[in-house]
Amino acid sequence: MKKVILIFMGFIFLCFFLPIVFTNSFKEVSSINQNNQMETNIIEKQQDKEMEEQNQKYTQYNTISLLHTKDGSIEQIDLEEYLYGVVSAEMPADFEMEALKAQAIVARTYTIYKAMTNQGKHNNATICDSSACCQAWISKEDRQNRWENNLRQSNWEKIVEAVNTTKGEIITYNGEPINAFFHSNSGGTTEAPINVWGGSGYPYLQSVQTSGEDAYSQYQSEVTLTQEEVIEKLKEKYPEIDFSFDDENAIQIKEYTEGGRVKTISFGNVNLSGVEARTIFGLRSANFTVNRIEDKITFAVIGYGHGVGMSQTGADSLARQGKSCEEIIHHFYTGVEIVSF
Ligand SMILES: [Zn+2]
Fold it and tell me: Tell me: the pLDDT tens digits for 319-340?
């Protein structure tokens, strides 16, 4: 009889209490889940808010004011449309699509950086159309007129595609747009900005090596001057210079940068930086050697431009090796992120 009662009690327990225990523990689990869900929602909302704030930080530059240096006029222009004119002015249209896309991202970053940091440089304009000052820009009409007739449409479409497929993408470091320097040909090794402009440099602008740059016409050049022309050019800047070609050691390269460019070169009693020598003698880069043959001086130059940041021919070379625009950007700018707004 006791056994029957025990079985009966056991049955009651199974039927009534166990479900209660399970239901309660289920309730607990579900309330933990609910809490987790709420936390996730809060985090997501926070992230959305941050994203929105970040977007607002950049979307205010969706229209920029472009200064035309020829006539001083200022044009209000859509950012992406402006970039068609920059990419087509800065990079040959027959470069690889991934190189053109990298150029679009770099040019967009450069523009946003200028807009955020250089306000006031051009009074009411965000940026100007001069490559010597800001970055080059050309109108669609002028650009197309310089292309052969049969390439006008396809070249322009290629540029537009490079800009449109990277719409809103910029390069950041520590959450801020980088100072995205670029140049034509690094000669195989890019330069740290400290060796070009002094200052303390930028952590994302390190000297990096790129293969294949020697395949481009921008890689090698020469400037030949007579001895008189060399002295004349030096005296324009240094009237007191004591320098004579009678001295075998009148010209000496004293030091190189880590990027392989001339850091210091002496002409008689005057020491010049490689960058200064580049300007004085009109060389394509500060990576050069000096050869004296009879009464002529030849500067043999490697690379084109200041050498800082992305090399355009290097970008094309990497694209030919199968690299994407993101990989190209990470190659030339150390430790950066690509974000979209
Ligand atoms: Zn400018």
Answer: 999 999 999 999 999 999 999 9
Determine the distance separating the centroid of ligand 1 and the alpha carbon of 131, expressed in angstroms.
8
Beta strands in the chain (DSSP E): 63-67, 74-78, 127-128, 169-173, 176-177, 182-183, 220-226, 251-256, 262-267, 270-273, 288-293, 296-302, 310-311, 337-340
Cα of 66 vs centre of ligand 1, distance in Å, is 9
pLDDT above 60: residue 5? no
* Ordered DSSP codes for 287-326: -EEEEEETTEEEEEEESBS---SEEHHHHHHHHHTT--HH
Task: For residue 161, report the distance from its CA to the centre of ligand 1, in Å.
Answer: 26
pLDDT tens by residue, 143-183 = 999 999 999 999 999 999 999 999 999 999 999 999 999 99
What percentage of the chain's residues is helix, strand, coil (to nearest 5)?
45, 20, 35
Cα(126) to ligand 1 centroid in Å equals 8
Using 50, 70 and 90 to split pLDDT, how confident is the model at 80?
very high
* Residues in Cβ contact with 153 at an 8 Å cutoff, skipping those fewer than 6 apart: none
> Is the alpha carbon torsion for 164, 136, 222, 191 positive or negative?
negative
Ligand 1 centroid–CA 88 distance in Å is: 18
